[in-house]
Amino acid sequence: MTSYEHHEHRDGLKVWPLSRTGIAILLVVAVLAFLIYTEHTAHLLGAIPYLLILACPLMHIFMHRGHQHHDSDRANGSR
């Protein structure tokens, strides 16, 4: 039995993260994520104030459902 056949489900489906190719892809993605984080931290931190400003109208739209709530609906108990 080869190591590739060893990492199979009962149904015969191969588990790609446990294969050699899967492990290599995950390692490459981890290294790239680390390099992007370390080299571009200043850019990421510089965008935080803009993301907070963008979050305000998005929260208003999605959490309050816009300006579609009326006082007459609240008095009747329906929303």
Largest sheet: none
Shape by Cα distribution: elongated
Measured between the Cα atoms of the first and last residue, the distance is 64 Å
The radius of gyration computed from the alpha-carbon positions, rounded to a whole number of angstroms, is: 25 Å
The total beta strand count reads 0
| Mean pLDDT score | 77
- Total helical segments: 5
List unreliable stretches of 5+ residues. none
Order of helices and strands: HHHHH
Structural class: mainly alpha
Helix content: 55-70%
Structurally, the number of domains stands at 1
Beta percentage is under 5%
Structural features, described:
- The protein is mainly alpha-helical and about 80 residues long.
- It has one domain.
- It is about 65% helix and about 0% strand.
- The protein contains five helices and no strands.
- The protein has helices at about 5, 20-40, 40-45, 50-65, 70-75.
- The protein is elongated.
- The model has no long low-confidence stretch (mean pLDDT about 75).
Structure keywords:
single chain, about 80 residues, mainly alpha, 5 helices, elongated
Secondary-structure map with pairings?
Layout: H1 3-6, H2 20-39, H3 41-46, H4 48-64, H5 71-76
Give a short overview.
With 79 residues, the protein is mainly alpha-helical. The chain contains 5 helices and no strands.
